[in-house]
Amino acid sequence: MERRISIRERLPRDAVWVLGLAMGALMVHWMITGQVPFGSDCHAYWLAWRGPMYTVGPSTADAYLYSPLFAQALWPLAQVPWPVFAGLVFALDAVLLAWLLRPLGWAWSVPLWLAGLPEVVAGNVDILLALVALVGLRRPLAWALPALTKVTPTLGPLWFLIRREWRQLAIAVVGTLVVALPSLVLAPALWRAWFHFLLAHAGESQIALGLHLSPPLLVRLPIGLALLAWGAVRDRRWTIPVAMLVCTPVLWHGSFTVLAALPRMRQPAATRPQEAEEPSPTVC
Question: Cα separations (Å) of 53 from 50, 57, 64, 71, 192?
Answer without folding.
Answer: 9, 10, 6, 10, 12
